[in-house]
Amino acid sequence: MPDTLDTRLETVLGITEDAGRISLAHFEGALRIHTKDDASPVTIADQETEQYIRRQLEAAFPEDGIFGEEFDNLRLDSKIIWVIDPIDGTRSFIAGVPLFGMLLAMVQDGSPVLGVCRLPALSQVFSAAKGMGATRNGVAMQTSGQTKLRDAMLFINEGENIYANEPDVFERLTKAGKLRRLSYDCQPHALVASGQIDAVVDYNLKPYDYLAMVPIIEEAGGVITDWQGATLDFNSDGRVVSAATPELHAELLTLLNAD
């Protein structure tokens, strides 16, 4: 099989489908919960899922690097690095909320060029590779095309953290858009890519939380950056905004950075 973006995407879609069965086997069951140094929770489901993905990536792409949430990183000087979040939304998973996801990004020369966002409990997978468009369950998707913030459906992720650390920004966000919802994790960004909502403002993310969403949203026609409008990479500060169009994105940047 040739080593191309489309064959790599096909391979990792299969890997994540199988990995999703591991997390689902633990979902709504009794779980032993541990607390990591950053006070975030981790379960056996997180660990077993990431271990499976790592084994499969090592077998398929042995020269590539791996950057994961739960275990030590490997070969970060490689041209290609896989970025894994086995369960994005562990708190939702623990609480029995079926909106947790699985994220896998392929980063080449520092830029995310392939992304998979799988929602195992909803039987949904959003994926994209650079220059190949974006799909939801294999069907092409695109953003809503909304250009006006006043008419937009806006989701505010990690609202309590934004409120605690940047209350002025939070107050502005709660008055923006036509419809607002407080939300969490990767699913709202996937909804931007599929055109179901128009924008998400997010906060305090790690690279494994956002890098997979970059090709998915961009290939669907949207924009995703940090709050300053800069390209997302391993060194971004964790403040993220995704939007259906450049025009809507620009309005959100103005709101986020208002004096």
Automatic annotation (TrEMBL):
Please list the cofactors this protein needs: Mg(2+)
**SUPFAM superfamilies reported in the protein's UniProt record:** Carbohydrate phosphatase (SSF56655)
A Gene Ontology biological process noted in the UniProt record is: L-histidine biosynthetic process
Q: Kindly list the GO molecular function terms attached to this UniProt entry.
A: metal ion binding; phosphatase activity
Q: Which domain of life is it from?
A: Bacteria
Q: Which residues make up the binding site for Mg(2+)?
A: 69, 85, 87-88, 209
- What Pfam families has UniProt attached to this entry? Inositol_P
Which UniProt key words apply to this protein? Hydrolase, Magnesium, Metal-binding
- InterPro entries (alphabetical): Inositol_monoP_superfamily, Inositol_monophosphatase-like
**Family per similarity comment:** Belongs to the inositol monophosphatase superfamily.
Under what name is this protein listed? Histidinol phosphatase-like enzyme (Inositol monophosphatase family)
Q: What is the lineage of its organism?
A: Bacteria, Pseudomonadati, Pseudomonadota, Alphaproteobacteria, Rhodobacterales
